[in-house]
Design goal:
Order of helices and strands: EHEHEHEHEH
CATH topology: Rossmann fold
CATH superfamily: Response regulator
Strand content: 15-25%
CATH class: Alpha Beta
Strand order of the largest sheet: 2-1-3-4-5
Number of helices: 5
Oligomer: single chain
Structural class: alpha/beta
CATH architecture: 3-Layer(aba) Sandwich
């Protein structure tokens, strides 16, 4: 089965998601479609990997076991070295809205669950342009 995104795409995406099944599904979908993808399962690991590796986009779950995704976002955006990183929040919460998300520096938020086709369309939006 052919991928939706051509192999010319080399964008590197970090998925921060504590549900390992969801994280692996996203990672599989992205790598199958030509993206480089790493996964971590908590906020501390996300902050650690961002200090040593460069990513074009971070998909950040808002509900993590150690630090909330919003607090991870705030920490990244307050760091002069990391603040350029593009971040999209993923949430199952109905209480999050775009105004709240963007005031902390995220590009967008995606309400879970979402389809893998929708994921690819949105990833392309933030990595190709």
């Amino acid at each position: 089965m052919a991928g939706i995104v051509g192999s010319h795409n080399s964008a590197k995406v970090l998925v921060v998601e504590d549900d390992k099944k969801i994280a692996e599904l996203i990672r599989f979908t992205l790598t199958k479609n030509g993206y480089q993808c790493d996964t971590v399962y908590n906020g501390r690991s996300a902050l650690d990997i961002l200090k040593t590796q460069n990513f074009d986009l971070v998909l950040l779950d808002t509900s993590l076991p150690d630090i909330s995704g919003v607090d991870v976002l705030k920490t990244i955006k307050q760091n002069d070295i990391l603040k350029h990183i593009k971040i999209v929040l993923m949430t199952a919460s109905v209480e999050l809205d775009l105004k709240t998300v963007t005031q902390y520096g995220a590009l967008d938020y995606w309400r879970k669950p979402f389809s893998m086709q929708d994921l690819l369309t949105r990833i392309r939006k933030y990595t190709e342009g």
